[in-house]
Amino acid sequence: MHATLEWSYALLTEPEQAMWRRASIFADSFDLDAAEAVCSGAGITADAVFGLIDGLIAKSVLICEPDRVPARYRMLDTVREFGEAKRRSEHETWLARRHRDWYAGVAGQQGLGSEQVAWFDRLHADHANLRAALDFCVAHRDEAHIGLKMACDLWLYWGSRGHLTEGRRCVDALLAAASGDRPLRARGLWVAGYLGLIQGDPNFAVPVLEAGPVAR
Prior knowledge:
2 domains, mainly alpha, Serine Threonine Protein Phosphatase 5, Tetratricopeptide repeat
């Protein structure tokens, strides 16, 4: 399989090869807006992204899911893992930060009423990418404060869509990794306590909620 992927990769143009590497940063499916924001730069303009995606679909590197609105794109796991290995060999570590920044923005777009339902649906579609972005922040302590804000922005999603355990685990890990920014830590403690409370764990939730104001 690896030899076949190497052969396919060698047949691509350099921009197509770069797009394969960069698109491998997505943990699951993604839409065009995400691809343009994350994968452009360093020789690829945002306007060129759609054409490169179209070319990779024609060459069976990417799969289009046209029945979803907006259309989404994904890779088979083996194809994504090959692109990830190539990306690491090219030292394109900046992509992980751009990926995180995009999904941090998505997390912060909470709406009201019917807009909130649409926001929940979008987060659900991008759940794997949100998790990857948060994992990046946990793994890099200098990014933890950004991850903690992102995790806090998702508080209503964690609770409303049944991701209480994952939300608590994520917030706890980022609270442990983040330093300074007392108002943000207080918010993180409130979110952790809220999730624990609706999960039916008052022994955890009450002390954490009480600690929130002190953290300010």
